[in-house]
Amino acid sequence: MSTINLQNIRQAEGLLEELQDARKSIESKLSLKKYLNNKKSVNISGNKIMRICLLAGLSSKEKRQLELVEQVQLSKNSNRIFETLFTLHNLSPLYSALLKIRYNDLDIDWDNTVLKSKIISHEILRGSKIIEKQELLDEWLNYAADISGSWSSGAIPSLNLNIGTYEDDIPALLNLNGRNIPNTQMLIAGTTGSGKSNLIAVIINEIRQISIETAFPVNFFLFDYKGEFSDPMNNNWLSLFEVDRTAILDPVVQPLPFTPFKDFTGKAQNEINLYSTEMSNALCAIDNTRISANMNNRLSEAIINAYRQSYNKPVTFALILAEYTRMQPERDREKDDSIKSVLKQLIRTNLFDTEDKIDLIKESYIVKMDAFPKDGVIAKAIVYFIISKLNILYEKLSKQSVDSECVEIRHFTIIDEAHYMLGFDNKPLNNLIAVGRNKGLSIILATQNMDSFKSEHFDFYANAQYPLIMKQQSINDGVIRDLFGVSGQEFNEIKQAIAGLQLGELIIKNPTAITLGMGKKYKKIRVRHLI
């Protein structure tokens, strides 16, 4: 007897919302306050609560009725149940057998994807009702097996992201970590109202749902310039990314819980010298003001002196300002120049803590940015110093794991409105992109226009595996030629395709056609609607 194909299963409309009571019941049992000892409470992933409820539903011997199954309404947005729900621990044959046993008395066409999706959602909903009964939940937990050790899922997950459909309704997949994929970077360009935020959400959702229950979970850091991902009105978005509001970092409310500066304890002086020059250039660049060479050199020397004062421990902006002021001519110490103005803004806003209280890589975070002007000093400083911190953390990591099919990805960073960070020689960002494949990093840069990625400081095109082009206000001819290598009629075709894009549509390079030199050099994708 063949097993049931458990791929491309759609969710019932509002399925995760229906499971909230069951989820809270289990989490409250596993997060008894007196045993937490200030540790983060247990949060059950969407996949996990669906799996628990599916098993609970299938454990019931209640007679199945096809009329009740048919009443299930599937998601209007075609949200799917990720295959990892079934494949974890290689239990797909068990689910298949249980489904056939429970529906043995009914004439079920197991090749009918719509009916199959309704049956599985129906069983998940049945299981949630069972679990919500307190005495049955206690019985389930008392008989829970110890699944540590051999039960852990050890394979690197294949991050083959299903972001929507091509024009012929074939699933549009982006292979992010196959061994034959040269890099992991994505560029997204889309004007306001193009569906860019939804595309970013779909990508995060796919990566998190595929990886969260494996031995190689992929965490993320999102710079939320518009504040929509961190808005309490959109709390339901967070469950799509397997996080809750503890992932929101708001520098207006309290300092970001880490120091942006490097610890040079036990390091050679020349490392501090190089770092001070880079940091000096950055502090000057984020203000977009012209400064003299003397001021730049003085700032670099002030950073070196600040490290002497701290005995090579991480410094502070206040300590740098004090050293910079001390080195000025006495007549100028009471005056503010552009460097002192930047330092005082950073001190006044109290953006960062003086020590690390979180690990930016081992958890997922969203930093709320909408309180600051996008092109202002503070917003630029937040992004610059967090990217710099990620570089520091990545330096300490070993090379990522590789198996016969996939390369491990540990973490990905999403910078919306990225054009504000591309207009100067942003060494930390360039380094983060260059490190990419060797340390398991994916970075997503999103802007309003594709030509923002054409920088004299760094070739962002060459380092992007997937340039994703949405509706643009203006189309730079040079960008199209660079990306697609076309001219003449092919060039006009692509330009017209971009001009005709609607909400939620994008075009992407067609590598097969480009390699063969025949066929359309692009494909159009309709992104699945998520938020």
What features would you describe in this structure?
The protein is α/β, with parallel strands linked by helices. It has three domains: 9-151, no CATH class; 160-224 and 363-372 and 385-527, Rossmann fold, CATH 3.40.50; 269-349, no CATH class. Helices cover 41% and strands 11% of the residues. The chain contains 20 helices and 13 strands. The protein has helices at residues 15-18, 20-30, 33-36, 46-59, 66-70, 84-87, 92-102, 113-132, 134-142, 196-211, 235-240, 269-285, 293-309, 317-327, 338-349, 377-395, 427-439, 477-484, 488-499, 511-516, and strands spanning 9-10, 80-81, 160-166, 171-175, 186-189, 219-224, 248-249, 365-368, 411-415, 441-447, 466-469, 505-509, 522-527. It has a seven-stranded parallel beta sheet with strand order 7-8-6-9-10-5-11. A four-stranded antiparallel beta sheet has the order 4-3-13-12. It has a two-stranded antiparallel sheet with strand order 1-2. Helix 16 (377-395) packs parallel to helix 17. The longest helix has 20 residues, at 113-132. It is globular and about 95 Å long. The model is unreliable at 144-152 (pLDDT under 50).
Quickly describe the structure.
The protein is of the alpha/beta class. The chain is built from 20 helices and 13 strands. Helix 17 links the parallel strand 9 (about 410-415) and strand 10 (about 440-445).
Structural class: alpha/beta
CATH topology of the largest domain: Rossmann fold
Q: Give a count of the beta strands, DSSP E runs of length 2 or more.
A: 13
The strand order across the widest sheet is 7-8-6-9-10-5-11
Q: Mind telling me the CATH class of the largest domain? A: Alpha Beta
- Specify the CATH architecture of the largest domain: 3-Layer(aba) Sandwich
Radius of gyration: 26 Å
- Quick one: CATH superfamily of the largest domain? P-loop containing nucleotide triphosphate hydrolases
Helix content percent band: 40-55%
- Count of helix runs: 20
Shape: globular
Q: Could you describe the largest sheet, including whether it forms a barrel?
A: 7 strands, parallel
Question: If you average the pLDDT, what whole number results?
Answer: 84
Kindly give the count of domains: 3
Would you identify the regions where 5 or more consecutive residues have pLDDT less than 50? 144-152
The share of residues in extended strands comes to 5-15%
Cα separation of the termini? 40 Å
